[in-house]
Write a structure and sequence with these properties.
Radius of gyration: 29 Å
Number of domains: 2
Distance between the termini: 81 Å
Shape: elongated
Structural class: alpha/beta
CATH class of the largest domain: Mainly Alpha
Low-confidence stretches: 1-10, 645-649
Mean pLDDT: 82
Number of strands: 10
């Protein structure tokens, strides 16, 4: 998967290149790069004055916590360790799950579901908070600025343009973010010299002193955690840029972020009162003439951060489909670029949820309470999966134990610091994450429940019958080429419902029968097929080997397969009907999609009934069979079939003489 494109640029993600570093700055660090918009403001709001902690010690301690949080959480855990755990070049919690799911730990799928669902919740709060924080900078000029309305308009535009792709504007992301990081670093550096002793924050003692002596240490740590919330997104974007490009660009980003935080801290020592008046420290450190350009640049950075989070959500849901955590949905590639995708229902769903969050909270500082809680859960789940990934290798066996002890301690502390904000807004993202988790759990287990009742049969047993059916001219020909969509995993098996459709529901005589099957691949960009001739000249099994970043356009792919078979003279290239064959008309094609519509309730436990009810709801959220399989509806027949392997345990109805009851 070396050849990836982003924003219209082509580069080898396996190599360190200038273009790779530039693109990394544009799409990987948007989330963590906009954290200075709200972190120091949240830390100041958490300050509780008193003799126990003077304000200057408080700021130095908070800055020390930020520096070492960025070091331990972002640099060591994600940039150094997690980026090693790539799945054929792809990252993120579900790619990590794909690497460890072969272990004899069946419960790990629950860990992956919890982590993925809370990451979706973060994808809602991040655009809302970053855009609103940037727009609030306009209040310096006009206190009556309609922040909520402007934020909603910007978010609407961001989500609307997703359907057209970002190839045309993506090329500007890198330069804009480079400018943003330079402004952060330079504006912060200028103020460090106002209080040079602010550099004491590099001494970890001040972080320890804050945590052990501040009366509001837990609240402060919840605010500090906001500085590293983009680390999980950094790992998820591994496939776009490659680990070497991300690591090098992170060095630059980390320096600029720390310089800005130190500058904000030095400015606050003289201007603490201005925060109470509504001045955001990130804009307060700018000279007066640079405030408006700074707000504009911050808004642009917030939009890019939102863009990155949204595309990350698309990738996450496509991965969820490949590991059967989510129903197949329509995936488009509007830019014509392999690395970019667009999932319509996910896009509009995220937009609606962002609108709800903005309208509900009204202010970014109120939104900060909701931010951080779900992402701590995601980080905890990633830590558990990384532990099992590290333990697979003997060289890392003992390191894995130390890793999980250290990071569970750190992240459980951050989780406690954030969970106390549950009733201040954290409940909203937890409810959202919980809803997604329940849906994923029900979809994964609902498929397993249905699989228990689906009867798979040996196809060879029915080959003679189908052979005679093909030759039986008393049955009207149903189609020349007839294709059925199957999910059978064994090559010698087929769902009984397909045989039921061919032989019993309506005998379907055809010249050629094709069994189409998608075999999901862990390599994200696998794009292959193979054909197995089950009955020469009549029955064929076509396996499409597709990675999770390949669009499910079976209609187009099967047309290519038929063309290949025609070129190889395996099947005729012209219609079998003389009148049409004389004019070189190609043979007709028809698809049959079959759904199992009935499972007897007496065969299910209460838990299974509840799971299937949620499963059916999630199925409604997903695309219909046409869009999910990428099949054009003009030549598709949709049928229903009972689950044929049910043994219904009931009393046999008694036959009686009706005349006896009439008299």
């Amino acid at each position: 998967m070396a050849e990836i494109t982003e924003g219209g640029h082509h580069f080898d993600t396996k190599k360190l290149t200038a273009m790779g570093v530039l693109v990394s700055l544009g799409i990987v660090f948007g989330d963590i790069g906009t954290s200075p918009l709200y972190v120091m403001k949240a830390i100041v709001n958490a300050f509780k004055g008193g003799s126990a902690m003077p304000f200057d010690e408080y700021i130095e301690g908070a800055l020390s916590c930020i520096i070492y949080t960025l070091t331990f959480q972002t640099t060591i855990k994600y940039v150094i360790i997690a980026l090693k755990a790539d799945n054929k070049g792809e990252g993120g919690i579900l790619s990590l799950y794909s690497l460890v799911k072969r272990l004899k730990k069946k419960w790990l799928y629950v860990i992956a579901i919890i982590g993925a669902s809370t990451l979706v919740a973060d994808s809602v709060i991040t655009p809302s908070l970053t855009v609103m924080s940037a727009v609030e900078g306009l209040k310096i000029f006009s206190p009556n600025t309609p922040v909520v309305a402007i934020t909603l308009v910007i978010l609407a535009i961001v989500f609307f343009v997703q359907q057209f792709g970002t190839a045309s504007i993506g090329k500007f992301f890198g330069p804009v973010m480079v400018t943003w990081f330079l402004v952060l670093g330079i504006s912060g550096s200028v103020h460090i010299f106002d209080h040079i002793d602010i550099l004491k924050a590099f001494n970890p003692y001040y972080a320890y002193n804050l945590i052990t002596h501040s009366p509001s240490a837990i609240i402060i740590m919840g605010a500090v955690f906001l500085c590293t919330t983009g680390a999980e997104a950094l790992y998820s974007d591994l496939g776009h840029c490659g680990k070497q490009n991300i690591r090098v660009s992170w060095g630059f980003v980390k320096v600029m972020l720390i310089l800005n935080y130190l500058g904000q801290g030095a400015w606050l020592l003289d201007n603490y009162h201005k925060v109470a008046e509504g001045v955001n420290p990130i804009f307060g450190i700018l000279p007066e003439w640079a405030v408006l350009p700074g707000v504009i640049l911050a808004t642009a950075a917030a939009i890019i951060a939102s863009q990155s989070v949204i595309t990350g959500a698309f990738t996450m849901f496509s991965e969820a489909m490949s590991v059967t955590f989510w129903p197949n949905q329509q995936i488009d590639y509007p830019s014509g670029i392999k690395g970019q995708m667009y999932i319509p229902r996910v896009n509009w769903g995220l937009m609606a949820l962002c609108f709800m969050v903005v309208i509900y909270f009204q202010k970014s500082e109120a939104m900060e309470a909701a931010y951080g809680l779900t992402i701590t859960v995601t980080m905890l789940m990633t830590t558990i999966l990384l532990f099992f990934w590290l333990r697979r290798t003997k060289a890392y066996k003992y390191f894995a134990v130390g890793f999980i002890i250290v990071y569970l301690s750190i992240e459980l502390g951050f989780f406690y610091a954030n969970v106390i904000k549950f009733f201040d807004g954290g409940w909203l993202t937890m409810v959202l994450g919980g809803f997604i988790a329940v849906c994923m759990y029900a979809w994964y287990n609902g498929r397993l429940i249905k699989a228990k009742f689906i009867k798979f049969i040996k196809l060879d047993k029915y080959v003679p019958v189908i052979k005679e059916l093909k030759l039986d001219e008393t049955i009207p020909k149903y189609a020349t080429n007839l294709a059925f969509l199957s999910r059978a995993k064994r090559e010698d098996e087929i769902e009984a419902k397909i045989i039921y459709s061919i032989l019993r529901k309506q005998p379907k005589r055809a010249d050629h029968y094709f069994i189409l099957n998608i075999v999901n691949q862990e390599d994200p960009y696998t794009f292959k097929y193979n054909v197995d001739e089950i009955m020469p000249g009549t029955i064929y099994r076509v396996n499409f080997l597709l990675g999770f970043k390949i669009d499910r356009r079976i209609n187009d792919y099967f047309d290519q397969v038929l063309s290949d078979l025609m070129e190889e003279d395996v099947i005729p290239s012209r219609s079998p009907h003389p009148s049409l064959r004389a004019h070189n008309v190609p043979p007709d094609l028809k698809y049959v999609i079959i759904d199992n519509t009935y499972i007897n309730d007496t065969l299910l436990t209460v838990k299974e009934k509840l799971t299937l009810n949620i499963y059916n709801f999630v199925k409604y959220i997903g695309s219909d069979d046409f869009k999910a399989w990428g099949v054009s509806p003009h030549n598709v027949v949709v049928e229903s079939a009972p689950l044929l392997d049910q043994k219904i345990v009931t009393k046999k109805i008694q036959q009686v003489d009706f005349k006896h009851y009439r008299s």
